[in-house]
Amino acid sequence: MVTTGLNRRWMQTLDKYLELYQNNREQIGRDDPPFLKKQRELAIAAFRQAGFPERKEERYKYTHLEPVFDGELNFEFKPRQIFFDGDDLFRCDVPQLDSIVLTVLNGFYYHPGTEPLTLMDNGVIYGSLMEAMHQYPDLVERHLGRNASNENEPFVALNTAFSRDGIFLYVPKGTHLDKPVQIINLLLSDKSQMVQHRNLIVLEDSTEAEVIICDHTLSSQMFLTNSVTEVFTGENANLDLLRLQNEHNNSCQVTNTWISQERDSHLQHGTITLHGGIVRNNLRINMKGEGSETYALGLFLTDKMQHVDNYTIIDHSKPHCTSNQFYKGVLDDSSTGAFSGMIHVHRDAQKTEAFQTNNNILLTDTARIQSKPRLEIYADDVKCSHGATVGQLDEDALFYLQSRGIPKADSRLMLMDAFTWDVVSKIKQHSLQERITELVAKRLRGELSRCNNCAMRCED
Amino acid sequence: MLQIKDLRVSIDGKEILKGINLSVKTGEVHAIMGPNGSGKSTLASALAGQDYIQITSGKMFYEGKDLTELSPEDRAREGIFLGFQYPVEIPGVSMVNFLRTSINSIRKYRNQEPMSAGDFLKLMREKKNIVEIDSDLTNRSVNEGFSGGEKKKNEIFQMALLEPRLAILDETDSGLDIDALRIVSKGVNKLRSPENATIIITHYQRLLEYIIPDVVHVLYKGRIVKSGDKSLAKELEEHGYDWIKQEVDANA
């Protein structure tokens, strides 16, 4: 094989991370329980084996991460002592959203003056993953790394090797969380930084929970995040997981979300990308139990030179499961996007119903979207469909609105709002839905160039 | 109120209107009739400002203003209303949001305060009665899932809300059953006043039994070939368009 210049560069970058691991091994693994030490070693070996994805590799064809990973980055392997008044710096302003707020600062759970881990009366545990490994080693070991595979997944492997903290949420059997859990990832630094954190969410049988993950940058430095969120949904469990991405244009985010579903479980997953420089969302849902249901929503709004790539794989491993993917994008200026959605129906997964829709609006001639549905069906009694559209705003509708005295710019906004409403309307929590509606409207009006509700005034 | 002088219009390079002259005064109702393909809807589109319409020569003046210099939204804000032949369905835009934005955009243009939510709802209720529109429809997205008749009623409902000075109704009667036709015409008649004017575009005489026009024009091959009073519409109903076609073609 001929090694191209680009591949050589990737090889060098690979070496850089391997070296980084070797040099900081002790610090990274200093609090590890034995099982994790082993996991890290396996992960770094898997990472070395897989390497970074080459540009010609189908999975990463449209998102080129080399320059970012190769860039000048700083790394922190322990929480930095930054003291700030959370309320001063960041206020998540969702009216009437009464939630358990868990702040993660540069990849570490931020809990000044409170315990790193909280055990509620009903047995629910939430807080620092690092701490959970010590207090509940068996519980963590039973799950950590069991969904998110390192094999041929360089970014997951990299995260497994490096990540030290993140959020742990455990909902014991039969428990309904009456408040949503809100994980707020904040990035704040005086130099460019790479952050790798890991969330572990375990819902035992017959549970119900709502989790909101918000990603924000609080300073204008370059940030690269490579995060993993592993989710276990037990039998008859019901999880609503929504991710709201709102980072500045000089950031890059690779999210890896791996979810398994047991029998009769119900999942609604949403990814709303309001803002970000380069965003790659890997979502993998394994429907391991019969009769489980999934609704995966996505909405991304891009402008300038932004890039958002949603890459999903839904495995129908067992019969009688239903999945529905519904992604929409609005792309302005010279921004680019990609959607690649895989429905994999395994041989035994008879009576599968799997649907996928991806609709996109390009507002300019220079915006680009790559939309690729992928279906692999090995069962014969299934109902599957997929559809992708790329278009402009409906000119007839635009004229209709204008002919009623509504200025063209406002008419366009109304149509874009309407286009995005399809996705936003499926957010179940009413107050959150209202807030996101408002944020989307602001975003479309170009008023969200500053991260909303953030006291810091990061440059766009 | 409206003067059209030697208006020539092309679509995709093909000349559709070949010199239209028309003058509409305040308080008048004009009917424009003609066989299919004669250019009736193109005239309506030109007045409303569709951008695929190319005006190659001629002028349109509305209240002394050159219409070609006004954007579609400004034409609406100046008091022109087009009732669409095929009202557009706009999923995701609620009727209430649409109508309120419309009214307030027009009010803003006229330096009026935005209408309060309460006043707006009151106005909606009041105007709904004029066209007997189902309350349910205003809770939906614009025209989405409306039947043909409901869409047309919705046009008249919007007209009632916006109170235009010049209303152009493009084939509002097509696809209407007799009950809907009666309701729509009742609406139009109620809104008729000495201060405003209406242009009704149709190719059936039927609507003109309910809305009595002051002037009837026949459009054929891009020109107004005959004008008269309401008896002209009757004549067309009885004898069809052939006699006019023959007359015009013989002179050509």
Topology:
The complex is a heterodimer of chains A (460) and B (252).
Chain A: H1 5-29, H2 34-50, H3 66-69, E1 74-75, H4 86-89, E2 100-105, E3 108-110, E4 117-119, E5 125-128, H5 129-135, H6 137-143, H7 154-162, E6 167-171, E7 181-187, E8 193-195, E9 198-203, E10 208-217, E11 223-233, E12 238-246, E13 251-261, E14 266-275, E15 278-287, E16 293-302, E17 307-316, E18 322-331, E19 336-345, E20 353-362, E21 368-377, E22 383-391, H8 395-402, H9 408-424, H10 430-444
Parallel strand pairs in A: 1-8, 2-7, 6-9, 7-10, 8-11, 9-11, 10-12, 11-13, 12-14, 13-15, 14-16, 15-17, 16-18, 17-19, 18-20, 19-21, 20-22
Antiparallel strand pairs in A: 2-3, 4-5, 5-6
Helix pairs in contact in A: 1-2, 2-7, 5-6, 8-9, 9-10
Chain B: E1 2-11, E2 14-24, E3 29-33, H1 40-48, E4 54-62, E5 65-66, H2 72-77, E6 80-83, E7 90-94, H3 95-109, H4 117-131, E8 141-142, H5 148-162, E9 166-170, H6 178-191, E10 197-201, E11 215-220, E12 223-228, H7 230-239, H8 242-251
Parallel strand pairs in B: 3-10, 3-11, 6-9, 9-10
Antiparallel strand pairs in B: 1-2, 1-4, 4-5, 7-8, 11-12
